[in-house]
Amino acid sequence: MSGFLRRLLHIAARPMRRDRGQGGYVVHPYRGYGSRHEVLLMGRVFRQAALGDVIPRYGVLRDLADVIRRVFRRGLPQVTVEVTLGENVTKVTTDRDGYFDVLLSIEHPLPQDSAWHHAELHVVLPGVEPVQSFTEVYIPPTEADLLVISDIDDTVMYTGVANKLRMLHRLFVKQAHQRMAFPGVAAFYQALHVGRSGKAKRPILYVSRGPWSIYEMLEEFFQLNRIPVGPILFLREWGISWRKPWPRRAEDHKYDLIQHMLEMRDELPCVLIGDSGQHDPEVYARIVHEYPERIRAVYIRRVERKPDRERAIHALREEIRHTGCDLVLAEDSAAMAEHACAQGLIAEEGLEQVRRTSQS
Hints:
Blueprint: H1 2-13, E1 24-29, E2 32-34, E3 38-48, H2 60-72, E4 74-75, E5 80-85, E6 88-93, E7 99-105, E8 116-123, E9 131-138, E10 147-151, H3 164-173, H4 185-194, E11 204-211, H5 215-224, E12 233-236, H6 250-264, E13 270-275, H7 280-290, E14 295-301, H8 307-320, E15 326-330, H9 333-342, H10 348-358
Parallel strand pairs: 2-9, 10-11, 10-13, 11-12, 13-14, 14-15
Antiparallel strand pairs: 1-3, 2-3, 3-4, 3-7, 5-6, 5-8, 8-9
């Protein structure tokens, strides 16, 4: 357990290492996503304390000091953030905790020979050097014909969300190569990404209830398991601050983000993928009610067999049946792929690959 706690401490301290203990003002953006008409990106502006010379550069004491700095760092309210993407420029103001959401209209077209675009952020504060940063924004190519939005925890990667201690152990202690991907997941998501034509290049957006501090681990996990790396990993800021000691509710976080994604690409149908262990079926059914003509299918991985929970999911399936959207409670990736192939969402070759890898 002592090793577990040290690992937790090390992960919680990781976001603080970028400043090398110098402290000061920081603008921290996350990667963005958008269309040829507008893009969305998020971030925060905050001030954090510096470390004294007596604190060692490495070890538990340094991690503890960085966690304390993170807890007490102060978001800067009412700060203007200027965002530049190509020739498109906008300004936003941070909220009371220093967070900002940018919805930037694309009035000057971006190059179409690349899906990734470089965005620069600029903050001017009185009496200090200007604060600058940058991030990347992903815009799907024109041939994309489907939007895929997927949960991660117990949907792509087994974390055991029903067992909180086990989930923390897998998230924070296990290295990326030790984490367990569900059989057939990589083949299924690859099939969804390329579509029936093999050239669709559909965007796959991943939403997790985990904190931003495990971002790098998740990217490594996806690459090691050959799961298509989504342009965006939408995680939660777990609110490790004096004002907000608890994270935002996962279902609210997921619902709001899915709404944003659907509204930005209103020409694209969508597939939603989640698991039965938390709130995914309820959140997704709510989305289907609000966008009945957009959601082609909802795939829910069965991760537990509680009779009350299964009855609730079956009731949701009947509740949305009139929209033409199927809610599939699936035993494995192969069951999802079989339905997707029957609906024309993936090719036969993709289905066969999912079947082969699901049995391995």
